Each structure stands twice: as C-alpha cells, then as structure tokens.
Amino acid sequence: MQSTKHIGWNFDNSYTKLSKSMFSFVKPQAVQAPKLCVFNNQLAKKMGLNMAEVSEDEIALWFSGNALIEGANPIAQAYAGHQFGHFTMLGDGRAILLGEHITPIGNRLDIQLKGAGQTPYSRRGDGRATLRAMLREYLISEAMFGLKIPTSRSLAVVTSGEEVYREDVHEGAILTRIASSHIRVGTFEFVSNFLSIEDLQRFTKYVIERHYPEIQYRECPPLEFLKVVMSRQIDLVVNWMRVGFIHGVMNTDNMSVAGETFDYGPCAFMNIYHPQTVFSSIDTGGRYAFGNQPRITHWNLSCLAGALLPIIHDDKATAIAMAQDVLKEFSILFEKRWTEMMGLKLGFNVSAMSSEVAELIHELLTWMEDHQADYTNTFLVLQSGSKDFSGIYSNSVFIQWVSKWHYLLNQKEILLENAVICMQTYNPQFIPRNYFFEQALDDVCYQQDFKLLNQLLQVMENPYTMNPEFDFLQQLPETDDKDYKTYCGT
Ligand code: AMP
Ligand code: MG
C-alpha cells in the first residue's frame, strides 16, 4: 500500500486498547463502485489533511472503506441503550470506526464510516445506508456547526454503486463522520450492565482522561463526570432550543457524553412555535417533542447516573444519594441557562437577567403559540429594530409586548441598538427549513442536481449574516410542514 503519511493522517487508536468486550475488530465491506458525492475541504484542512494531490477516486476508495488508510484499525463499538424508554443491547450495526486521528493541534477525532457493511452488532440489518439519509446527516450536521452548536461533523459522502432496499430501492452511500468520540450514555449502560466493575472503572477513567482530564484528580471522579456531562448536555439542549432544533430520537444511545449533537436520524427544525412539535413518524407519543427535550435530557442523565452507581460509592444507598444530589440540580441549572439564552435572544446580557425578563420571555412564547408565529422569524422581526410591524406582528398584544420589552431594556440601561448587536449573534438569519433541505436531497437523489444542496451548505456556513441572495431559503411552507414526517436514518 502507498504511504498516506504525507497527507497528514495520524492515527492513534486508543479505543482498541480497552477491554476486548467493548468492540469487535471488523473491516468495512468493499462496495462495487465507490464514487465521491460530496467532500468537505474546509473540515479536511482543519483536520490537518492535505488533499490537494489526492484524486477523487482515491478519496472515494478511502471513504467507502474499499481502501484502508494507513494507521487505521477498524472496529465496531458495542453499546446498549434505552430506546423510547426500553433497555436493549445495541452496537455499531452499520458504522465502522476506522480509528482516532490526531490533528496538528492535538485534537483526537473519531473517523467513522457510516453504512460500511455488517458488523457483529447488525442484528437483522444490512449494515448499509441510503444516499438520501447520509446526505441529510451531512447537510444538517454541517448546518449545526455553522449555527455554532456542538456537533459531529461530516467529511464525505461516497455513493456505493449498490442498491439498498428499504420500502423502496435506494442508491447506497457511506458517510464519513467525524466526532470527538462516539461514546454514548448507552456505552456506559453497556459496560455497567454486561461487564465487570473493573471494566467500568477502567472505561470511566479512559473517558475522563479523553474528554474531561480536568476532573481526574477530584475526590470522586465518576460523580464529577456525571456533573460535567450534565452541564454539557444542558448547554447542548439549550442551544438546540435556541434555534428550534428537534433531535427526534434522544434515546440514551444517541446522546454523546462529550455533549455533541450526533446520530442525526429523524431530526427537524420547528417553524411555528409550539412546544409539542414533533415530526418523527415513530414518536407517536411526543416523547421527543421540542419542549420535552429538557425532561428527556434529565431522564437520560438518570440512566447515566444508574450506570455509574457501582463506582460512585461501595455502599449502594450512599451512591444513590450522591447521584441524586447531582441530578436534583438539573432543573434549576437548565432553567437558569435556558432563561439566560432566551434573554440573549432578546438582547439582555446575562447580568441584566431578572424575574421581569423571565416573565417577558414567557409572554412572548405564549403569544407565538397563540398566534402561530414562526420561531426564527419572530426574533428576526424584533431584531430588525423596526417599530413598524406588519402581518401577524401588527397584532395589538404583540405591539404591547414590544413596548414592555423596550421599557425593560431601557430600565436595564441597554440601548436598543446594543441589544440588536447582541441578538444578531444568538438569532440565526437562516436555519435549514425542512422542506427546502428535503427538496435539495430529492434534487440530488433523483436528478443529480446539486444546486440547491450547495446553496444550503453555503448559506449555513454563515447563518447569522444577512444574505439577500438566499432569502428565498427562509420562505415558510404554505402548510407549515403539517404533513411533514421524518424517519429514523436508514
Ligand atoms: P439509530 O436509529 O441510528 O440510533 O440505530 C439504532 C441501532 O440500529 C444501532 O445499533 C444501529 O447500529 C442499528 N442499525 C440501524 N440501521 C442499521 C442497518 N441498516 N444495519 C444494521 N444495523 C443498523
Ligand atoms: Mg443511534
């Protein structure tokens, strides 16, 4: 094999040194005709990869798994998880971790091929993925990065030249996913339920050293780990709620302990504000509805706490009491950070937060819900600084609310123009509107037309900047996505 060192690949596969029960060595299954569909040059550069001399065909060989990059040592990771509340054994059934690449500035990144063939955890699945689902993850994960929300990233989509059978026949593809790790709440549930306490100790130490080295010398690192994961996940979900993101399938196996958004399946973006908004076809009970995401985060953290109990304290009752002390802070912490975030969306800096601002936020949300206002656009209307409101915004209750908002800003000695500057960094001008990105995916999959996809990718690189050329991408669907349904990525 030709050396790939000059390109900048620098693998160090620490996960393969863990207990052998944690993973299986498995090679990607070669595909018939790999062809590069999308490649993320900016991300490659950030990873320290110099791809200038590499042909598209060679890139397609690497990111389909047909050729192995020097230093890679592919594995499928074992994990378990609570899916819609039910505990089950899982694992990478259609994803293969090539290894961990160390970037020039020392960041450790998982390089994973999604759709790379069957593994010992595939159960009855084919280990493959459709082009549409992989492009969807590429687009949304990159949009989330543009929105400044922690996320896994997408380096490439390669079509396989093979058919994938779902309800219909689809073109197959492989996505190269980059993440700070793929360690999930469900990975802890797997180790705690099926391996030894020593394995749980070793694994927790490994994860702390990898993600949170600052807590390794504290008195009870597993408890500190629970605290820090709680804090990261609160920040993450608050960020989702800032832009109207609905993850759609917050099972414990889809929640990263590093606090990154990942496992993009039936996710979507909310248009009209309503806390019960759900698009996922399988979420009939609304478990993962927009406004239920905080409650589910807490529920998932309780699962993490349960998995960590044996190493928090030898005495079970003491361990439970210690974990409960951490978890009982959740609601206060979430409410505080959510209120601060919503305050920033209205131009109140954190030091200006007060119960009146909190009340103002709730009044605005109630108005949006009552008047079926678009979540993103309502903040943009306010941020425009205009006092001349039209359409639903000419409503007297809204105008009264605006007066109260101005009064409170004034009381906090915040000039409207300064509030607007603050708001511009929290309120995106662009979110990926569901029906536009679905249209973009159709265009690629059925017409080989990349125009809309590329426009969306381009605009989502700087979603906080006005860009009149792309204003059409924010038009609302006439039906407000009433019949829009999303499906688990397959
Ligand atoms: P997800 O819905 O992506 O969180 O996946 C749930 C579980 O199903 C994970 O263990 C996946 O690895 C597995 N899975 C999903 N799709 C496939 C597939 N096509 N082949 C094998 N396993 C799959
Ligand atoms: Mg998953």
Nutshell version of this structure?
With 490 residues, this protein is an alpha+beta fold.
Could you walk me through the main structural features you see in this protein, from its secondary elements to its overall organization?
This protein is α+β, with helices and mostly antiparallel strands and 490 residues long. It is built from 15 helices and 11 strands. The protein is globular, with a radius of gyration of 23 Å. The mean pLDDT is 96. Adenosine monophosphate binds next to loops. The site of adenosine monophosphate has 18 residues, from loops.
Share in β-strands = 5-15%
Rg, nearest Å: 23 Å
Helix content: 40-55%
Number of domains: 4
Strand count: 11
Low-confidence stretches: none
- Major sheet size, sense and barrel closure: 5 strands, antiparallel
Classification by helices and strands: alpha+beta
Mean pLDDT: 96
Number of helices: 15
Key features of this structure:
single chain, alpha+beta, 4 domains, 13% strand, globular, binds adenosine monophosphate, binds magnesium ion
Topology:
Elements: E1 23-25, E2 35-39, H1 41-46, H2 56-62, E3 75-77, E4 80-83, E5 86-89, E6 95-102, E7 108-114, H3 131-146, E8 153-165, E9 169-179, H4 185-194, H5 197-211, H6 221-243, E10 245-246, E11 268-269, H7 293-312, H8 316-327, H9 330-345, H10 355-371, H11 375-383, H12 396-411, H13 416-424, H14 434-447, H15 451-459
